[in-house]
């Protein structure tokens, strides 16, 4: 996001940073306007589509205006991506988009049909029909503008809009997709454009947890979390929402709810920070196995060395995440340690080796058996000692911290993969997050 949101303030339509073309104020006399998004497992077969449609029916019968956003049936997008890769090694991203966007077209049509069978007026909308306009970055496009006026007009006639998620139309009039998991982003962007009162994300878990319950059995469901914390959780490894969708929700003040489509109970609300009364210091613990560590041993301790190391990596489109440079014992040479995405490790090593003479280092060590563990909480801004608790807890368990990085509301540490579970359980307890 280019323009940061005004802290602690819901922004007025005029101040919104993105040019959504058609804000239509919802009539306060009327019932709510709701976007309901169903993920792949929630529409995995005809029976589940019917189950989801019954949830839509409930909201319609309560008098609400409803836009439904659907994913492809579970597994379908993977299958389509597989077809592309079988056909063409270096493929045309515009054709990739034409192919992989088709999964959502099927579910949107089926959902509209199912609703019609229930006596509800409904129609499907593909990205280009609305239109949802994107930039030209096929395969990972960003939404630039949504014209919701026709959908809103039809709300007035009692019609439900069923929107195919994950897709839009690019400036050259081709179908564009929003990156894997992109139907979350479709839903939030549609909610922003329609000025919906809320955006409910139906999925196969019942909310956002303090950490991954498969690793920490004492993980708790979070009742309310701020957009900012959720953004960190999503980008640091929690897979429940696409990161971009949380960014849009934050910038447009969209109230999100993550909830189960299989159980009737409230999920997790993702809201503005000011709405959260009892703020925990640490709200959650995220982990990511997607990192790998590289150490350049004995590089010269002089100006320009960091530029010589990271320049070639940038040129190869390899992102560096955490960095430490140790103090040099002799004032001449030092070690430089940093992390890259695990999928980029081999390429990064290659790039560094081919730049060996320019950089000048004694040896190169690489390690893919690491995890990044992050504690997240807006309460860190006002509480001291949060980092110390993390370091002490890990030390007590004999876990060595290899790299540290921090931001205003998170502290990340890199540890050996074999300690991941131990570290997460210990931290979960140390920050008072364990379920009773
Ligand atoms: N069907 C797309 C995917 O699997 C988009 C989504 O489900 O969010 O990535
Ligand atoms: Mg998803």
Q: Average pLDDT across residues?
A: 92
Major pleated sheet = 8 strands, mixed
- The secondary structure category is alpha/beta
Spans of at least 5 consecutive residues whose pLDDT stays below 50 are: 1-29
**Percent helix among the residues?**
25-40%
Report the C-alpha radius of gyration, rounded. Answer: 24 Å
Strand content: 15-25%
Per CATH, the architecture of the largest domain is 3-Layer(aba) Sandwich
CATH superfamily of the largest domain: Acetylglutamate kinase-like
Count of helical stretches = 13
| Small molecules bound in the structure, each named once | aspartic acid, magnesium ion
Number of E-state strands: 20
Number of domains: 2
**What overall geometry do the principal axes of the alpha carbons give?**
globular
Q: CATH topology of the largest domain, what is it called?
A: Carbamate kinase
Through-space gap between termini: 38 Å
What would the keywords be for this entry?
436 residues, alpha/beta, Carbamate kinase, VC0802-like, 4-stranded antiparallel sheet, 24% strand, globular, disordered N terminus, binds aspartic acid, binds magnesium ion
């Amino acid at each position: 996001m280019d323009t940061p949101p005004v802290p602690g303030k819901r922004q007025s339509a005029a101040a919104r940073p993105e040019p959504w073309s058609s804000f239509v104020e919802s009539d306060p006399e009327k019932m709510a306007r709701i976007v309901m998004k169903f993920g792949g497992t929630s529409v995995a077969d005809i029976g589940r589509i019917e189950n989801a449609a019954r949830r839509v029916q409930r909201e319609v019968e309560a008098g609400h205006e409803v836009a439904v956003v659907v994913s492809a049936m579970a597994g379908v997008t993977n299958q389509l991506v597989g077809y592309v890769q079988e056909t063409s090694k270096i493929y045309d991203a515009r054709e990739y988009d034409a192919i992989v966007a088709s999964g959502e077209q099927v579910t949107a049509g089926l959902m509209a049909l199912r609703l019609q069978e229930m006596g509800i007026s409904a129609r499907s909308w593909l990205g280009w029909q609305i239109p949802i306009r994107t930039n030209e970055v096929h395969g990972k496009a960003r939404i630039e503008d949504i014209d919701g006026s026709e959908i809103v007009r039809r709300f007035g006639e009692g019609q439900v809009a069923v929107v195919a998620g994950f897709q839009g139309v690019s400036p050259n009039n081709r179908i564009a997709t929003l990156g894997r998991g992109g139907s979350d982003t479709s839903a939030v962007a549609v909610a922003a454009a329609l000025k919906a009162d809320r955006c409910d994300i139906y999925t196969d878990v019942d909310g956002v947890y303090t950490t991954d319950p498969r690793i920490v059995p004492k993980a708790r469901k979070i009742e309310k979390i701020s957009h900012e914390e959720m953004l960190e959780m999503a980008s640091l490894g929690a897979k429940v929402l696409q990161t971009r969708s949380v960014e849009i929700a934050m910038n447009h003040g969209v109230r999100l709810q993550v909830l189960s489509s299989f159980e009737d109970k409230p999920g997790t609300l993702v809201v503005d920070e000011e709405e959260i009364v009892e703020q925990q210091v640490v709200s959650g613990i995220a982990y990511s196995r997607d990192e790998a560590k590289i150490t350049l041993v004995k590089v010269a301790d002089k100006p320009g060395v960091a530029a010589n190391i990271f320049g070639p990596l940038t040129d190869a489109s390899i992102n560096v995440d955490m960095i430490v440079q140790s103090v040099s014992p002799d004032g001449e040479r030092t070690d430089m340690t940093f992390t890259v995405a695990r999928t980029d490790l081999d390429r990064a090593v290659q790039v560094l080796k081919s730049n060996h003479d320019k950089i000048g280092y004694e040896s190169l060590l690489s390690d893919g058996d690491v995890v990044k563990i992050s504690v997240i909480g807006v309460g860190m801004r006002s509480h001291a000692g949060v980092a110390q608790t993390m370091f002490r807890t890990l030390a007590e368990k004999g876990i060595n911290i290899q790299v540290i990085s921090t931001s205003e509301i998170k502290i990340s540490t890199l540890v050996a993969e074999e300690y991941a579970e131990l570290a997460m359980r210990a931290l979960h307890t140390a920050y008072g997050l364990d379920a009773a």
